[in-house]
Amino acid sequence: MKVFSTILFLFIFHISFVNTIEWQELNAATFTRAKAENKIILLNLKANWCHWCHVMKNNTYTNQEVVTYINKHFITVEADQDANPELSNRYKDYGWPATIFINAKGEDVVKRAGYMAPENFLRLLKAIIKDPSPEQTSVDLTTINNTKNTNNNLVATLENNFIKSLDIEVGGFNQAQKYIEYATFEKALLDRKNLTLNTWIKNSVKGAKKLSDPVWGGMYQYSTHNDWEHVHFEKLLSIQARYINIFLQHYTYYNDENSLKQAKNIVHYIDTFLANKNGLYSNAQDADLIQGRHAGAYFALNNTERRKLGIPNIDKNTFTDNNATIGSALLRMYNGTQNKKYLNKVKTIENGLYQRKNRNGLYTHGSKQSTVSSLKDQIAMAHFFINLIKNDINNTKAKQELKALCLQLKNKFLLQNGSFISFTGNNGLTTQPLKEENISLARIFNWYGHYTHNKEYINIAKHTYKFLTADVLAKNYYSEASLLLLQKELATEPNQYVYLNTEKGNHFNYYLQSITPFYSLVYVGKLNELPTEKQNLIKSFKENVLFSCTSNYCSTPIYSEEELKKEFYKNN
């Protein structure tokens, strides 16, 4: 008995003194400490739903040799990438997990993507201590000033690279990971008269349907092995929003009833697993039932068998960017189905997100206040407001909020070189412009300038485009689709669709909302609610009628969905 007690004591003593890593949050104090101690910061940027993040936590960050070396030589910081969009957008090319080594000056020393086994990780750690100089020379994009005229060959080069990036036969990108990126789908849809792109749309949507969970609904994030059969099982709210939009547009443009069914299945999934009592939606569902163990066998089971074993963890955070995005998707769902239950969900999300507005006029990322405001959240909210305004000409609250937000973005994020920084606030890092965020915001500002007849916002968008086409940026795009969309929008005025709702005749305003692209001005209302300059044109009509207009042209009267299709396809 005495021997047993001694062994038990030694075991407990050993366990209590096992080395662990004490993770901190990233803030300005982290860099002060790094400078004082002459150490490198190790940032472990993870996701709650990520299989390989769990594996690295269980295998690598518990290895005693690794832990001892890290604790001696590094300052350790851990962050949830979903909760920190200013970090996730900055390092998204390296995740998840993303392992980022940063020096006291805020310079990235080494960046690595994905899981690293203990022995490989230890080798890397020692190499960094031996030579802590940055692997790559970073470019300060805040100092980039593009003084050149736009290269006439640039658009042709981007178009060529865009086509090369696509896997026409299988769908998705020409790479091992298979999924559909929204801007790429958006551009292909607008250029669908190109038979190659039309084929790509068909094969991509067909493939993407294989990412759908056949039991619970909802979309898995992507597939590997250069096909659509090897799925990764995490389900992110942002991914659900993306595919609701894609499937509904495919239904609208190609009359594919199965795509509508897929969109409805996604909504059923988020309502079943991600809905909260306050009407907002949770962030994601884990890829693993038991964290760190591959769950392929689990997801092959039926509903009853799955629930007997349990349900993968739900990240219950209700982030602003993702809820604004799902709000826009549900608004498209309402117009695609004319079912008011979707509109009611949108109104609840809208009211919930209004509560996220800070005293500084910006929107917080989560339910708690933060010292950092991310551009990603503001972009998602601006898109949401635009969709709300298009859908309801009398939504004065959304109009006011969009006006106020655009002003704040101009005042707090815009630099002299035409770029927008990715966040405001102090987390120790020097804030930089990020390409995709700048493209998105330039598209918003250009649309808003035309909507309000305020040329200042159009000129800002043009200045941002000039920044984006600087040599150091233009040649490094993963996908050129969004930049090409911006270029085309800046070169033309948006089409205006003015629909007089007399409540008599054909009701095709829902179809109008469904088929018009982002870069369009949509006005649906009674005579006195429509733009003043168009009222004389339509005041004599006694039934529902639509005009498709530019600044110097209006179509003949359109009275039905079929006539709208003909007019739309002629112009697009």
Tell me the fraction of residues in β-strands, as a range: 5-15%
Helix content: 40-55%
In terms of per-residue confidence, which ranges show pLDDT below 50 for 5 or more consecutive residues? 9-16
Average pLDDT level: 93
Our count of helices gives 24
Compute the CA-based radius of gyration: 26 Å
Give the strand order of the largest sheet, numbering strands 1, 2, ... along the chain: 2-1-3-4
CA(first)-CA(last) distance: 86 Å
- Helix-strand category: alpha+beta
Beta-strand segment tally? 14
The biggest sheet amounts to: 4 strands, mixed
Principal-axis shape equals globular
What report would you give on this structure?
This protein is α+β, with helices and mostly antiparallel strands. 50% of the residues lie in helices and 10% in strands. The protein is built from 24 helices and 14 strands. It has helices at residues 2-16, 28-37, 51-59, 64-73, 85-91, 118-130, 154-164, 182-190, 195-208, 237-254, 257-274, 296-299, 303-309, 320-337, 340-354, 375-391, 396-412, 435-452, 455-468, 471-474, 481-491, 509-515, 532-538, 561-571; strands spanning 40-46, 74-80, 98-102, 108-113, 222-224, 230-232, 235-236, 284-285, 314-315, 373-374, 423-424, 495-500, 520-525, 545-549. Helix 8 runs parallel beside helix 10 and helix 10 (237-254) runs parallel beside helix 14. 41% of the residues are buried. Residues 9-16 have low confidence and may be disordered. InterPro entries: 6-hairpin_glycosidase_sf, Ssp411, Ssp411-like_TRX, Thioredoxin-like_sf. Residues 19-120 form the Spermatogenesis-associated protein 20-like TRX domain.
